[in-house]
Amino acid sequence: MKDLIIVGAGGHGREVLEWVRDINEDNPTWNVLGFIDDNLNQLADKKCSYKIIGRIADWKIEKNQCFALGIASPVIKEKVTKLLRDRGAEFASVIHPTARIAESATYGLGFVAYPNSGIGPDAYVGDFVTLLSSKIGHDAWVGDYTTISSHCGVNGDVRLGKRVFLGSHAAIVPKKRIGDDVYVGLGSVVINDVESNMKVFGNPARGLR
């Protein structure tokens, strides 16, 4: 059994801990050591049975360790995972037992799938994607470091670029293309393609650079 360290002790990291516990209850998989976070006081006012055991910036990788990504920000995810992987870190995927992933779907390294999330047939999900309790439709393509918040609709044949963030209850109609580094605001409905480096809000979603 490998030792597991959760990277990031904020709200998302503590949720990832809960999903790891659920996985271990069904099938003992990891020995959880705790969190690493550059804010050593992140858990100061929280009721958490695990502690911050060190800082991300200076953590030394040891044998038998693997890591779970507990960070939601796409840009920070990319920065932190590259830093740790350059030191030899191995990242585990944390897929909740209630997540439904089609046999023909593909996902990359460090994937985190929340309860009741799902990936449809022939969809592709890149590295270090975070999927909260949402569904990715058939034939969709999701770029690296993207975060899809709860109750989003990523419909069939949608393409999301790298480092995209979808706020809760956002919806994208089928076959639309979203560029890299796009932020889709909470509750927005995307009915047109979105260029890279845009923020879009509303129903229908309208853009701001």
Find the structural class using helix and strand composition: alpha/beta
Largest sheet, if any? 8 strands, mixed
CATH topology of the largest domain: UDP N-Acetylglucosamine Acyltransferase, domain 1
* Strand line-up in the sheet with most strands: 5-8-11-14-17-20-22-23
Q: Give the total of domains.
A: 2
Task: Using the coordinates above, name the CATH class of the largest domain.
Answer: Mainly Beta
Give the N-terminus to C-terminus distance in angstroms.
Answer: 47 Å
The proportion of residues forming helix, as a percent range, comes to 10-25%
- N-to-C SSE string, H for helix and E for strand: EHEEEHEEEEEEEEEEEEEEEEEEE
CATH homologous superfamily annotation of the largest domain: Hexapeptide repeat proteins
| SS element count, helices | 2
* Integer-rounded radius of gyration: 17 Å
On the 0 to 100 scale, the average pLDDT is 96
Q: Would you report the number of β strands?
A: 23
Beta-sheet strand percentage?
25-35%
Q: How does the SSE layout of this entry go?
A:
Elements: E1 2-7, H1 11-26, E2 30-36, E3 52-54, E4 65-69, H2 74-86, E5 94-95, E6 100-101, E7 106-107, E8 112-113, E9 118-119, E10 124-125, E11 130-131, E12 135-136, E13 141-142, E14 147-148, E15 153-154, E16 159-160, E17 165-166, E18 171-172, E19 177-178, E20 183-184, E21 189-190, E22 199-201, E23 206-208
Parallel strand pairs: 1-2, 1-4, 2-3, 5-8, 6-9, 7-10, 8-11, 9-12, 10-13, 11-14, 12-15, 13-16, 14-17, 15-18, 16-19, 17-20, 18-21, 20-22
Antiparallel strand pairs: 22-23
